[in-house]
Amino acid sequence: MAQMKNAVKIFISYASQDKNYLLDIKKWLRYAQHENITIWDDGELGLAKSWDQTIKARLNEADIVLFLISIDFLSSRYIQEIELKQALDRHRAGKCYLVPVFVRHCILDELDEVMVFQGFPKGTFFSDLTHELDRYYTEFQRKITALIGEVRINNFGIVGEDHEVSGQGLEQKEQAITIREQENYQKKILLAPVKSHIALMLADALASQIEREKKYQSWEFTLIQPFDEAKFEEEMANSLYTVHIFTSQNEINDGAERGMFDFAFKNTQNSEFKSSLIWLSSPDLEDKLPAEMKACTIIKGLPSDLTDNIKVNEIKRQEIIDNKKKIFLPKLSVFMMYDFEKDHGSPIRIKLKRELEGRGEILSDFAPPNYTNDVIENYLNISEGVIIFYGNSTINWYCHWQDQIQKMFSRCSRAVYIDNPDKIDKLERDVNNKAFLVMQEEGLIRQYVDQFITNLKNSSNCHGI
User: How much is the average pLDDT of 422-428?
Assistant: First the structure.
């Protein structure tokens, strides 16, 4: 029985001569390590005698394999005959993702099997770049972040397994199944059978429009035209959109066309993704529609109006899928530093925490009472950002921890929220506003958090609002 994995495992294959690039790659991947993600390379072998078995075992359980490609990578017999071969075999079996990272210039003619994958940086090598290195590494980081999300969706979305999940795990499993179902959906437009001469003409016009879209716009949708109600109902389960043509009030009131609409509407009205569209031969018919039909999308114009509407719906459908995927992406860790006894119950601090975590991108943490410098340092070591909440604490408390955090935490993603009492005095007297993003207005918490998250993601310098 397959088991859901507890961690996303990344394996880095590289030549020892490229260790500096390895360290850079691991630095850019560091953001994910606290998030139950393991990153492994042979530098962690130490003095292990069974190094060959260890490498093969680690590679065999990897979800994502990175190849740091250079002339030394290509010249390594072990990499070519063991690591590359094993990784490609596992990818063909659908067990891992492969990502080539082009670190030093070399000829790639003999890497056909690897070059089919999207590599980084695109069209060049890191060794050839003299400017905007951070931008290229950021693109790489985003790619790996997305792959981590895909692995988690796969892990949670195992259908038909016997293991039980509950709470957040159950919610994630349901979301993962929904995502995969939607991504695997065949893009079909189901046209309900029609009888009248006008409706048949409109059906032919729609078929021609879709063929033009497919030919000239590379549209992926196919029109399905069943000849009877039974076939229509059978095709419903496999179609994203159903189209219902109405040419008279009789068809709207009690014709076979209305019966098929009622069946389709019942199956799509509560769906996030499926839609029933009504196409009227005359705009005058809209006034004759009952309320439940008016709740649907109504097309009164050309076949191109209908296909344009579906294109807009497809953009919205993809946005829903992308939003669902966000819960599977690695979250950024933020440490909130405050005087536990004096500010743990502060409404403003709690509001700030909720705003941070409400984005779905942040995991926030705080130190327990009676913390020491060592405890704080441990928290900072696994965090991408830190916020000091300066509320009812003393001047001595704030100045001490501001100084300590500047020494311990050299990254730019630092902020301080200043609350009453004496907010203005605190800002002018105590806060180093060049080293910290300063937050001080409750009404601007959302904007502050937007800026803070941008700093986290871009590793840019902190600037106040």
Answer: 89
Q: Report CA 65 to chain centroid distance, whole Å.
A: 19
Q: What is the pLDDT of residue 398?
A: 92
| pLDDT surpassing 50 at residue 5 | no
pLDDT-based confidence at residue 143 (cuts at 50, 70, 90): confident
For the domain made up of 331-458, give the CATH fold.
Answer: Rossmann fold (3.40.50)
Q: Which residues of 84-115 are buried (b: 16+ CB within 10 A; e: fewer)?
A: bebbeebbeeeebbbbbbbbbebeeeebeebe
Q: Residue 317: how many CB atoms within 10 A of its CB?
A: 18
pLDDT (average), residues 345-357: 90
Listed by start position, the domains of the chain span 8-156, 185-325, 331-458
Question: How large is the C-alpha radius of gyration of the chain?
Answer: 29
Contacts of residue 388, Cβ cutoff 8 Å, sequence gap at least 6: 337, 338, 398, 401, 402, 405, 414, 415, 416, 417, 436
pTM confidence score = 0.60
CATH H-level superfamily of 185-325? Response regulator (3.40.50.2300)
Query: Which residues does residue 222 pair with via DSSP β-bridges, in sequence order?
Result: 188
Task: Kindly state the tokens that stand for 464.
Answer: 């106040």
